[in-house]
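tool=predict chain=A
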Amino acid sequence: MLGRIEGRYDVVVVGGGPAGLGAALGARDSGAERILVVDREPETGGILLQCIHSGFGLHHFKEELTGPEYAERFLERVVDHDIDVISGSYVSSVGIDSDGDKHVRILREGRGISTVESKSVVLAMGCRERTRGAVRIPGTRPSGVLTAGLAQKLVNMMGMLPGKRIAILGSGDIGLIMARRLTLEGCEVVGVFELMPYSNGLTRNVVQCLEDFGIPLHLSTTVAQIHGRDRLEKITVAPVGPGFVPDLSRAWEVECDTLLLSIGLVPENELSQSLGVELDVITRGPRVSSSMETSLPGIFACGNVLHVHDLVDFVTEEALKAGRFAGEYAQGIRRPKDNITLVPGNNVRYCVPHTLAPGREHTIYMRAKEPMKPCLIKVGDLMQRKLGFVVPAEMIMFKIKPDVLDRFHGDTLRIDILPYEKEGGR
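tool=predict ok
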């Protein structure tokens, strides 16, 4: 989008998806003047550009938008705020000198390698899909086996159908949405096969994309074998027993010419690793403070590179905050170090951010390990919140008010999800 770039910036944002655009705007809101967004794709906007279905913006804009419409609103604001954006470009490395300045090395299509200096950097590279190699499905290697996100791009952006008779492994949101999309295009979706005993997609997508179209969802079931020489011909599916081992004695064959994989997303953290940023072993994203700062001063992270989100609205909220703190850092504003570490407790898979500081409000993002209903979120002995249910597929978000932390005097704060018991045990 921009031909020339300057040699020095206040904030450089790596990634031009919803997280990157939100972070850039957050940095501008904080008072940072020179901001650069570097995006590897030819067109800025990230995965939103291929998500032509509605359902975006309900939280942030209080209205229902398609993915491209949501992206367009942020792109217009980025342009209006005179933020530099370069697409078709890669950040190959970030170096930090003894003064704390960041040296961002950028490979630009048709322009070679450039290095710009920045006072702070926001990591917003997003995530990628897990592939067949990640789950090691036995069998041959025919065409017709692809990720759900790639199928979405083929259908929505290139006008190509991946096949006619479709099976889907995994019940992630992209797979559920593509089950509906391909059905609307005249394909036959023979079923969605999910390893876990519960869906890994949002409840609304299970209802609107599967149940409303009569597409079966087979829980505790997986693809045990792929068959076909040149093109996929059929798959063997089987229920799983203890340890998620396929029970081949109860397996059956399903004829299909296409298998979509919707088996999870992984944060794009090669750049984070090369920087030496400390990563969370559960999320596979950076560990961050309440200001979204990583273990390296002046390096911030947000969005799906930090932890995989369900809703882009939550990505935006998190990114705006990361950008504001990155902008403040670039202007020399330093906040007191966090002195409280969050500890995931009973039925809590992870919490973000990883540390807190008293004196201001905090938004906590977390996921449950297993479904539970009704239940109680318990934050130490400070606060509790009743929920009708929790499921691993749906992120939990809640706020901790400043006066709550003012009552806390320890250095570790445990968060639990517990069964809710009514008074009298009934």
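The longest strand covers residues 112-123. Residues 312-330 form the longest helix (19 residues).
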